Amino acid sequence: MRRREHVIGVVRDVYERYGFEPLETPAFENIETLLGKYGEEGNKLIFKILKRGEHEASGEADLALRYDLTVPLARVIAQYQNELPKLWKRYQIQPVWRADRPARGRFREFYQCDVDSIGSQSPTVEAEILSSVCDVLVQLGFEGFTVRLNHRMVLSGLLNAAGVPAAQHNEALVALDKLDKIGVDGVRQEFVARGISQQAAEKCLASFHVEATEPPDDTLLRLRHTLDEKDDAVANLAAIVSLAEQTNVAGRIRVDLSLARGLSYYTGAIMEIAVPDLAGSLGGGGRYDNLVGMFLGRDVPACGFSLGLERIIVVMTERGMFPAAVSGGAVDVMVTLWNEDARADAMALARDLRHSGLRVDIYPDADKLGKQFKYASSRNVPFVAIVGDDERAQGTVSVKDLRNGDQQTVKRGEAAQHLRARRS
Amino acid sequence: MRRREHVIGVVRDVYERYGFEPLETPAFENIETLLGKYGEEGNKLIFKILKRGEHEASGEADLALRYDLTVPLARVIAQYQNELPKLWKRYQIQPVWRADRPARGRFREFYQCDVDSIGSQSPTVEAEILSSVCDVLVQLGFEGFTVRLNHRMVLSGLLNAAGVPAAQHNEALVALDKLDKIGVDGVRQEFVARGISQQAAEKCLASFHVEATEPPDDTLLRLRHTLDEKDDAVANLAAIVSLAEQTNVAGRIRVDLSLARGLSYYTGAIMEIAVPDLAGSLGGGGRYDNLVGMFLGRDVPACGFSLGLERIIVVMTERGMFPAAVSGGAVDVMVTLWNEDARADAMALARDLRHSGLRVDIYPDADKLGKQFKYASSRNVPFVAIVGDDERAQGTVSVKDLRNGDQQTVKRGEAAQHLRARRS
User: Into how many domains does chain A fold?
Assistant: First the structure.
């Protein structure tokens, strides 16, 4: 939980600097808002809330717990369309609930972390979102990650150019999406198994494959040859790339033509973050100009990105990326209790140490000191402060480092500084 | 929401300095955990979740949404009793759900903010909790508030001394609890209406009333006369007062013998925060040494305090106590878009301003400048930055203060500093 708070704190800080506003929506929506939005399987995984009062006995549900953050966003846009700004930029970090069977790394309640810009088709929108996501990752300590960028319409164009009939586009994309996992040969077999002609399959493989080291401009140049010199989608990608190059996204973009992303609601640019030596991504998103129309009745341009919060926490934990203050114990120093008479003194010392910003615990009872030390050790508290009779008489504090047994006596007024310097 | 984040940030910061650990529990508990814990009326107000899958059609519920933070805490203690430390200090800030009819200031989903120490009967526990709560309020900007302190056993002792039979104690306490609202005469009538003899009623009124300005030590001295010189509860109150005097609670405590607090599960000290010119309290709590036993089968000493988060936000808003950065707009400066060619330049300027910590928006389209200014104004953005052809040629930025129309041209590299200085 402390780790999650750390990550959320960084995300908030960065997104607010980009002018995204925090949004929270209630845990439950009207059940009709959610049903039918996630397919038949999704309907089953939605937690449904019984009607209250006299209607409880009916066994019917009228509310349902949030299943993702996108549908509540669309509902808010539809409901407040006249009050929202022309370009509404919001982020939302809240739990969602899915009635999956709990398993390792899969919970019925988990956090999603979405950022979306609503109302503009400008490529500035994609560039800003990518830039903010990269700022988050850099600030969390990630290095060497890549932004995979592609475009839904480029995918269609390449499939057309390869001779895949429109009716088979979705089949082809499902196969293509596995390129990272199963390699060129695997995808070739998938293509054939899904009824795509061998000739079209080879053309696809040739045009979709991009060397990991190819600069985006070279990929875009190649695209202009394969498709039309003036293809809108390629121009849009080029605009996004050139804007993103002005930010800390510079040098991280790879136009990866094999990126398909499963969700069918994307209409323009699609993007994903890849980290070396990590299967899967830390997050992904894209432009979805038609989705809000499902609720509103008219289309509203939109682009969003979802960071994989739980995934990020797992990776940062495995790789030891959390600062000591986050991954270490909750308390910097425990003030021991010498005897009953020293109670008020211990309280006053704790007050001063806390005032300096240290996290301080007080042992509640005048037990034997050894027992108090042992308790602090068991709680991973690195330091104990002792104010015995001698220390009280001399206006000092003894500070013991429980990690190495080192004990020093310092002036009462300097105890906070002493501890802060040795905390690390 | 920005306001809530501000308050929660302060609460977190303070509680962590006191060695309280953050706890989050899932939104739903098994339904049996909640049913029967809040009385018959409470049972009706609990949101119940339908069974999933093949059992959905049964219309039965097996889960229920969190109704408060105390019962989930007791459940966690019972479940993890062997893994928790001897003195477990936790805070929890999460929404709870109640199926009340929504009304002004009453929501079906609202935040509770609890801090509890589990496992010790030491008066240090009460003093630490009071001190942390006062630190929170001081840091939020509250002044002149009072800590009302009383003790459940002192209440019983005084009622006994006044000749109220044990069977009528609860009736008497309900009446007494209204002293603040209905005054001495009102409570006298209530006492009589509730069947308490006139003689006992007068004795009660005499012993429970405490002048607002009476120092705690005087009240305690008086208590020692009325009750036993060595009364445990009075000694406990005196110990809490003397420990709390070592902290910033000093000078704020009023031993208020009329404080009863509704909840019947308190067993020792009870406390509440009163603010001048405000009916009701900003929070309250007390010791409840028997409650955890309801779940665990054996009693565990515990003491807690619940801050009225939503109340605090309302009062701070009404009294203009939020810092400008919290109550003001979400964005410090909007970078305008001069023309299509200036897009990358606008992006780069936004990058630098954001890097300096400013909250920056970029206008997405190359509309007329007047339209862009108007949009920024409507969004309460105080500054716009303009990089037109002249500015680009000279390496400058024009910064316009939309609040007074003042416009200045500064060197590109000094724009961030210029804006930060004028933001306030």
Answer: 2
Per-residue b or e along B183-213, where b marks 16 or more CB atoms closer than 10 Å to that residue's CB: eeeebbebbeeeebeeebbebbbebbebeee
From the CA of B147, how many Å to the nearest CA of chain A? 18
- Whether residues A262 and A370 fall in one domain: no
Within an 8 Å CB–CB cutoff, is residue A196 touching chain B?
A: no
Q: Are residues A269 and A367 in the same domain?
A: no
- Whether residue B28 and residue A47 make contact (CB cut-off 8 A), yes or no, is yes
Q: Domain boundary at A304, A324, A344, which?
A: A324
Distance, in Å, from the CA atom of A179 to the CA atom of A182, rounded to the nearest integer, reads: 6
Nearest residue of B to residue A42, measured between CA atoms:
B53
Asked if B357 and A17 come within 8 Å (Cβ–Cβ), the reply is yes
Identity (one letter) of the amino acid at B165?
P
Q: Which residues of chain A are within 8 Å of residue B115 when distances are taken between CB atoms? A: none
3-state DSSP call for residue B85?
coil
| A8 Cβ under 8 Å from any chain B Cβ | no
Task: Please name the amino acid found at residue A204.
Answer: C
Tell me, yes or no, whether A263 and A336 share the same domain: no
Residues A248 and A271 in one domain: yes
DSSP B124: H
Tokens of A405: 């047994």
Could you tell me the CATH number of the domain that includes residue B335? 3.40.50.800
Encoded amino acid at A222, one letter: R
Let me know whether A293 and A392 are in one domain: no
Binding-face residues of A in 355-374 toward B, CB within 8 A: 357-365
- Please check whether residue A32 touches B, CB under 8 A: no
Specify whether A250 is located in the same domain as A352: no
How many CB atoms sit inside 10 A of residue B121's CB?
16
Q: What residues make up the domain containing A415?
A: 330-423
Residues A74 and A219 occupy one common structural domain? yes
Please identify among residues 93-122 of chain B the ones whose CB lies closer than 8 Å to any CB of chain A: 95, 97, 99, 108-109, 120, 122
Per the domain annotation, does B223 fall within a domain?
yes
Q: Which residue, among A120, A99, A91, has the nearest Cα to A25 in the 3D structure?
A: A91
424 residues of chain B, pLDDT tens digit each = 889 989 999 999 999 999 999 999 999 999 999 998 887 888 899 999 999 988 998 999 999 999 999 999 989 998 888 888 888 999 999 999 999 887 766 789 999 999 999 999 999 999 999 999 999 999 999 998 999 999 999 999 999 999 999 988 888 888 888 887 888 899 999 988 988 999 999 988 888 888 888 999 999 999 998 898 888 999 999 999 999 999 999 999 999 998 988 767 899 999 999 998 888 899 999 999 888 887 778 889 999 999 999 999 999 999 999 987 777 778 999 999 999 989 999 999 999 999 999 999 999 999 999 999 999 999 889 999 999 999 999 999 999 999 999 999 999 999 999 999 988 6
Q: Is residue B20 part of a domain?
A: no
* Contact check, Cβ <8 Å, B247/A19: no
Residue B179 resides in a domain: yes
